[in-house]
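BUG: 3D viewer hangs when loading the predicted structure for this chain

Environment: internal workstation, default settings.
Expected: structure renders.
Actual: progress bar stalls at 90%.

Input used:
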Amino acid sequence: MLKLNQGNKETRNVMQKLACVIVILFLTIRSGFVIAFPKKEVILTTHNLCPYGCYKKHNKSHPSPDNFTGIAVDTVRCAFDKMEQPLKIVVVPWARAQYMVKNNQADGFFAASKNTSRDQFATLSATIADQKWQWYLLKENPLSPENTNFKHKATVAGFIGANMLKWMEKEKYHIMARTQNTTSLLKILLKGRVDAILANNYVMAELLKKHHATDRVKVFLNKEKPLGVYFSNTFLADKPLFLKDFNSYLSSCKAQ
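Structure tokens produced before the viewer hung:
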């Protein structure tokens, strides 16, 4: 009988505590207060690619999120700050950045242009930075992308994970090399190993200046391909209003 009474007493105590919690929640909501829970950190992947995102020159030997900056990175951080949303940026090789999102190891990747393979597992945001795809050839090379026979005669190259490389593969260009980054692309062009490379205008402008090679190449516009953030469809399914909110802040952030 004693054990039974003790059990009933414990049950009453639990019920009383539960009732108190319910009353507190009711009074809190009724009085207009909202209980704030910490927002979960969003993980975005990117790669080291000036001027969109790269480590500051004076501190390259000690890379950290604090000295990683650029026109795309700063715009993304600005939008997240306005949303009061915690953000973690992970810098890895470009192919891996996309693989991590595809396999739900991260919530999104940037700065990326639209393509159908990426659309299968992620959704592209509004524009965070401009981009032009441009052909680069040595000046002494007689070939020109403006000629109809260029696709069949020219040997070309692109870097792994790039939308430009996928486009050249789809269009059946004669691809002679696939490099790890744009710097390697420029090096094989300057050595004459390929006739042309397809690259981002901002990135290549910096590299040509760095390698004192601006006067050695001729440039042809291929197309304009604006860049955004690809957010995982799995992530967006859990946060259906996130992309709309993010996009709404981009125009003001790009203007800063």
